[in-house]
Flavin reductase like domain-containing protein (Agromyces mediolanus), 279 residues
Amino acid sequence: MRQDEHLVIEPSVLYVGTPVYLVVTRNADGTANLAPASSHWALGRMLVLGLETDGQSYANLVERPQLTVNFPSSGQWRNVERLAAVTGRDPVPAAKAHRYRTERRKFELAGLTEQPSELVAPPRVREAPLQFEGEVRRITPGVDPGYAMVEVEVVRVHALPELHVPGTQHIDPGAWHPLIYAFRHFYDRGEELGWTRSSPTASGPPELGPPPLEPESASGPLDELARWEGFGGTWALRELDAEGAVVSLCRCDGGEEVSRIVSADPAFLRWAAEQEVQP
């Protein structure tokens, strides 16, 4: 796609696709508050959660900085969606009054059950395949006062046995199907496409194939072809006539075409004349 083919748009949300989580906090009366969210990222043992400041989860964490973060599977999207129009706040904040109602029995509403935690006061969600217990280490106000960034240290991780790689401390990514929230729709993660070289569960390094060539890095078509071969790629002469030659640059396994060299350079044509055309 050429750069000028992109459109300038103003989407109502920027949820490009992240796993949904259910955050559980403690209310002042000791009961549990359950709420869905999707804004978060992780680094090391820390999670950074993006929470609305007019929600019950945020109010609880300011006063009682412990929580559990529970990741539902893709098949549990209906349980999550049952929580979409309720809040633990009473009264409901004015900005939410037109689409939310107060609900204290959120676990029952969602068809989920509480499971005692081991290191923090708020319970876990028993049905969630992956559960984190956490302690809030810092809360930073957002540029917009409507949200805050909550930094959480994960102090314990719980996983269903079928997600665990036996004999290790690793999660099997092939067995884990988080619920993905993208532009207000729910999705499964789909099929595995590859892995990063730092994966502790992969069978070997990722198969990336030769990197794309930068036109300015080669002084001529034969130099470009030599660079491709140097990266382990293969090629095939597709066309040759008086107007030029066409060579396909293919993956190192001899498979799909990645790019083409089309040139009428005299040296390239002399080289092509010595090759066999493979239509």
Q: What stands out?
A: The domain at 10-187 is CATH 2.30.110.10 (Pnp Oxidase; Chain A). The chain has two domains: 10-187, 217-273.
